[in-house]
Structures are given as C-alpha cells and as structure tokens.
Amino acid sequence: DADVTQTPRNRITKTGKRIMLECSQTKGHDRMYWYRQDPGLGLRLIYYSFDVKDINKGEISDGYSVSRQAQAKFSLSLESAIPNQTALYFCATSESDRANTGELFFGEGSRLTVL
Amino acid sequence: RKEVEQDPGPFNVPEGATVAFNCTYSNSASQSFFWYRQDCRKEPKLLMSVYSSGNEDGRFTAQLNRASQYISLLIRDSKLSDSATYLCVVGPRGYSTLTFGKGTMLLVSP
C-alpha cells in the first residue's frame, strides 16, 4: 500500500458542485500539503499544515479550503467547483524541521475535471 | 522575474550522452536546493539534494552557484529510463515551503 493515499484518483464533476479530495498518510509525518499541477505552470502550493492545529494558505488558496482531521488526514475541498480548477492535485507530506531532509513524499495524484 | 526558472525543453539526447540542466532562482535568501524527478502523469520524487560544495550520486552530479543563483544537474551516460521531467526546487531554511520550477523534460532515445 502507498504511504500517501489520495482519493478519488479521478473525478469528473460539473460547475458549481462541491468536491472533496482526501489524503491519508502512514508515514507519521507532521507536515502535509496540497499542490495542484497544470501543464506549463508547474506545481503550485494551495494549502499546507504543519500539525493538526495549523493551517496555512499557499500561493493559490482562493476557491479552496482544507481540513486537518488528524495527523494522518488532510482533505481539500472545492466548495463550488469551476472549470479552471481542472487540474492534477497532489497531496504531500514531510517530516518536521529537525529531521527534514527536504524530501516531500507525494501521493499518486487526483485528476479532477470540472465541466 | 519568476522565483525558479527552468528551460522547459524537451532535451532530446541519445543513450549514453551527457546532458546538463540549469535552473535559476530569484530569492537570494534561499537555503535549500533539490532536484526532483517526475515521470509522465506520476508523482514527483526526490532525485537529490544540492549542496554548496556540489555532490554526486552515481551518474548524477548537482552543483550550486550561490553568487549567480543557479543550480545545475548533470546526467552522464544517459539511459532510456532517465526520460522524465526534472524539477528544480528551492526553499528557505527549514524547508517551510518549497518552490518548484516548471520542470525540464528529458527524452532519451535508443
């Protein structure tokens, strides 16, 4: 089983629908992240969380919200999906500063299409 | 100027060739530097960290030039399996949030 698991892996939805992407990890890491990847734009940070009570906006948080339900779970919500939110979404984890090698561990991605 | 810039490529090289990628970054306070590899439609994975003195991992050599604010990756004796997109990644001390370049695509042909 993957250490960082994203569900769903693929989702097609319609404009205006609420969508939740879920991420769970078995690595025991404190830090979790949500990125989106678009062709030609690279990976962009949406939200990140350094522990259960910590939530921070990233570069492109508008239109998104997150919930850190537990150390191992970090979900991303699109309250009212729009077509330009069509993208590949990645969840990632990392260790805390002290032990951090700079390595992010990514899930396999969730491909979201908003029609 | 974008925070982390890379030539998108693609770089088309034959097997066995040596190929080099460069990456420039705009934040002179950056302290952490990495190369990640991403296969098509897959998740990025850490290839190697980049240290001030330069470092090597098998066929891969990474260099950092702080004065000119660029990072390089050299791949020797390219293999077909090296075909991927290489992401330059830069961050502050503590790796709070890393900034990814858009990536350089490498295609190695037989």
Short description:
Chain A is mainly beta and 115 residues long. Chain A is built from no helices and 11 strands. In chain B, 0% of the residues lie in helices and 52% in strands.
Can you describe this structure?
The complex is a heterodimer of chains A (115) and B (110). With 115 residues, chain A is mostly beta strands. Helices cover 0% and strands 52% of the residues of chain A. Chain A has strands spanning 4-7, 10-13, 19-25, 31-38, 42-49, 56-57, 65-70, 73-78, 87-94, 105-106, 110-114. In chain A, strand 5 and strand 6 (56-57) form a beta hairpin. The model of chain A has no long low-confidence stretch (mean pLDDT 92). In chain B, the strands form two sheets. In chain B, strands 2, 4, 5, 9, 10 and 11 form a six-stranded mixed sheet that branches. Chain B has a five-stranded antiparallel sheet with strand order 1-3-8-7-6, with no helix packed on it. The mean pLDDT of chain B is 92. Classes of the chains: A mainly beta (115), B mainly beta (110). The A-B interface holds A 33, 35, 40-45, 48, 58, 88, 90, 94, 97, 100-104, 106-109 and B 8, 32, 34, 36, 41-46, 49, 87, 89, 91, 94-95, 97-98, 100-103.
